[in-house]
Design the sequence.
């Protein structure tokens, strides 16, 4: 939800939030694997939303 709100305000694209969260997930998994997996799942869900938004924008 926060990624969509940021994208609507023109602050950052949803796909970029997904990429950054994915990087953070990898770094976090080095310390806490379970937490990293949760963050990775969130990143994947946001990436799916970004893809749906790109498809909708194309028509």
Sequence:
């Amino acid at each position: 939800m926060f990624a969509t709100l940021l994208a609507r305000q023109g602050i950052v694209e949803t796909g970029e939030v997904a990429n950054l969260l994915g990087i953070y997930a990898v770094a976090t998994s080095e310390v806490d694997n379970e937490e990293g997996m949760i963050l990775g799942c969130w990143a994947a869900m946001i990436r799916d939303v970004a893809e749906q938004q790109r498809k909708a924008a194309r028509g």
